[in-house]
Amino acid sequence: MEAEKVRQIFRLVSEKQISVEDATEIINNSGFTDLGFAKIDTERNKRTGVPEIIYGEGKTAEQIIGIVEAMLEKQNNILVTRVDSQKAKEVRKSLPQLHYDEVSEMLLWEKNPVAKTIGKIAIVTAGTSDLKIAEEAAVTAEAFGNSVVRIYDVGVAGIHRLFARIDEIRAAQVVIVIAGMEGALASVVGGLVSSPVIAVPTSVGYGTAFNGMAALLTMLNSCATGITVVNIDNGFGAGYSASKINHLAEAAK
């Protein structure tokens, strides 16, 4: 810790604005909790406005339980992504307070639910096959206090379905467009709305879709302006980014 910051802490103690115990905790705070198999970033919420999120894939149920229990000492709401149903079942034996969403494969514990925004995030999918990624984005955005509108199965193969919901899409502060196959839906929506569009390519599609590469390249090469593209199947990243944009718009009102 910088010497100047230590002096400030001593001054606060001398002025009785904080206790000696609080000062000791601040000085000894390394910014993370070391569990041996994981180092939990306890300062992320202060730096970024959003606490650390647990990526469940590749972690054992026991590791997830240990991380959640340690995080509960510092934060109220817990979000765990990419957890299959069997692993979720094992985790919930020790932490039944965690709600499991089977579609998005996410665990969520809202000890103190966040008030929902007035501005909405519209989540638009090309097909039902994109539902898992769409719900990952939706659950993420809702966990961060956003109002979400789901507009599913409106791909370009039946574009009249999109036009039937276009007013709802245009009313959103941010639009997340999720599509596999050739990924054309993001360009179509991008040319119809004034809001920022976050495009999510999915790994849905036949052989030459190359597990989402075709959709990714289409979205990156879109001629529609204002489109930002996240990684293949990254519903969480889209929901997180949309939340930040939506909250900026909310704060500006």
From TrEMBL:
GO biological process: 'de novo' IMP biosynthetic process
Domain PurE intervals: 119-251
InterPro entries reported for this sequence: P2CMN_synthase_LarB, PurE_dom
Membrane-spanning parts: none
GO molecular function, one term: hydrolase activity
SUPFAM superfamilies associated with the record: N5-CAIR mutase (phosphoribosylaminoimidazole carboxylase, PurE) (SSF52255)
SMART domains: AIRC
NCBIfam families linked: LarB
Protein's name according to its UniProt entry: PurE domain-containing protein
Organism: Liquorilactobacillus mali KCTC 3596 = DSM 20444
